[in-house]
């Protein structure tokens, strides 16, 4: 019996040092491909920035065949107008939006048109296995308010690079590289000819199975840090800090994200005294009920919204 | 000894300028509150995050 008890520990002590050696030896020529530069804060954005709205929202999506679908969307509620003073100006609006989507593994087309005359269009296509094209445009009736942008993304073995062209002589480029299996660094430059502005920025991302930490600094004065902790398969906690040293504005927020079978609940609290929550409840197959609330105690601005989404 | 006294004087002058100036303190209090919320939430998430699991 004593010998039987002794045998298992002997085998584990010989395998453990071997495992540790494998973990320590990183193959720097086979690093994973990093996520795109613009999605570096992806986890934090998904948890902390749900699409909060005020009023009533109804979305209906009808699939005509496997690749093509139409969508109808009605919104009624106050829209905030940016104002110079601290008072928020809200104007009640109602609009209907008609949309068409074509989704193919190699090509995606989205078009939306609103009753106030605005048109949104997006194209995403794979030109080759590693090169893809993205384009989007927003056209309006008002002069000088329409804009469009085209970007070319190249995915390398352990890096990604993107080149963007926009109207108003807007040029941008970014590059992100995996440095270790968990760490990646990136940088971007942009030049806006119309406004005679240019800028440069750097970003870093460290992720493991349990957490993601990102940091971004830009010459426009932006410092953005975020941290997401994946507590379990269903629960994540996230925190972020945004500081703009040009406009002297700083905001930190802390939030939770519960993804359950029948619902998804996200809530957050801000350093500006703003508390928000967003609930998507699956009532039935293809039928979702949405509740949104945002309470800004500092400005005494309380927004509540409800909606229904029909279709996948 | 004199070097450390000089740097303590500079530190005092710095703290005075940041704390007693109304405008700067308005920004600094926001910055302290935001950084405190960010760092405190990271500390809580890393150490007590498992309590929030379902």
Automatic annotation (TrEMBL), chain A:
* Localization of this protein: Mitochondrion outer membrane
Top-level taxon in the UniProt lineage: Eukaryota
Provide the alphabetized UniProt keywords: Acetylation, Ion transport, Membrane, Mitochondrion, Mitochondrion outer membrane, Porin, Protein transport, Transmembrane, Transmembrane beta strand, Transport
| Annotated GO CC locations | mitochondrial outer membrane; pore complex
For biological process, the GO terms are: monoatomic ion transport; protein import into mitochondrial matrix
**Signal peptide interval:** none
Summary of the function given for this chain in its UniProt record:
Central component of the receptor complex responsible for the recognition and translocation of cytosolically synthesized mitochondrial preproteins. Together with TOM22 functions as the transit peptide receptor at the surface of the mitochondrion outer membrane and facilitates the movement of preproteins into the translocation pore. Directly involved in the pore formation.
Q: Which family does it belong to?
A: Belongs to the Tom40 family.
The protein's name in its UniProt record: Mitochondrial import receptor subunit TOM40-1-like
Upper classification of the organism: Eukaryota, Viridiplantae, Streptophyta, Embryophyta, Tracheophyta
From TrEMBL, chain B:
InterPro entries, alphabetically? Answer: TOM5_viridi
A single GO CC term for this protein reads: mitochondrial outer membrane translocase complex
* Protein name according to UniProt: Mitochondrial import receptor subunit TOM5 homolog
What are the leading ranks of the lineage? Eukaryota, Viridiplantae, Streptophyta, Embryophyta, Tracheophyta
């Amino acid at each position: 019996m004593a010998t039987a008890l002794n045998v298992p520990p002997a085998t584990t002590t010989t395998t453990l040092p071997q495992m540790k050696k494998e973990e320590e030896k990183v193959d720097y020529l086979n690093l994973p491909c990093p996520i795109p530069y613009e999605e570096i804060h992806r986890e934090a954005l998904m948890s902390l920035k749900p699409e909060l709205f005020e009023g009533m929202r109804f979305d209906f999506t009808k699939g005509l065949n496997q690749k093509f679908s139409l969508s109808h969307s009605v919104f009624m509620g106050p829209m905030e107008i940016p104002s110079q003073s601290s008072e928020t100006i809200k104007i009640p609006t109602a609009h209907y939006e008609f949309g068409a989507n074509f989704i193919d593994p190699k090509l995606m087309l989205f078009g939306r048109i609103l009753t106030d005359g605005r048109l949104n269009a997006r194209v995403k296509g794979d030109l080759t296995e590693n090169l893809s094209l993205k384009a989007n445009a927003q056209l309006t009736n008002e002069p000088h308010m329409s804009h469009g942008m085209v970007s070319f993304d190249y995915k390398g073995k352990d890096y990604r690079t993107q080149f963007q062209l926009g109207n108003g002589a807007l040029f941008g480029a970014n590059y992100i590289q995996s440095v270790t299996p968990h760490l990646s660094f990136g940088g971007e430059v942009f030049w806006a000819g119309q406004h005679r502005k240019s800028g440069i920025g750097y970003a870093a991302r460290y992720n493991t199975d349990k957490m993601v930490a990102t940091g971004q600094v830009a010459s426009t004065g932006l410092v953005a840090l975020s941290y997401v902790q994946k507590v379990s398969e269903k629960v994540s906690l996230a925190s972020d800090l945004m500081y703009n040293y040009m406009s002297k504005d700083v905001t930190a927020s802390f939030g939770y994200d519960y993804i359950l079978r029948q619902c998804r609940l996200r809530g957050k609290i801000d350093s500006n005294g703003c508390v928000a929550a967003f609930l998507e409840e699956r009532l039935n197959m293809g039928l979702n009920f949405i509740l949104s609330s945002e309470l800004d105690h500092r400005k005494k601005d309380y927004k509540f919204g409800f909606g229904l989404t029909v279709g996948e | 000894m004199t070097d450390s006294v000089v740097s303590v004087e500079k530190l005092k002058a710095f703290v005075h300028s940041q704390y007693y100036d109304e405008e700067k303190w308005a920004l600094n209090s926001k910055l302290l509150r935001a950084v405190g919320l960010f760092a405190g939430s990271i500390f809580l998430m890393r150490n007590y995050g498992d309590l929030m699991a379902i």
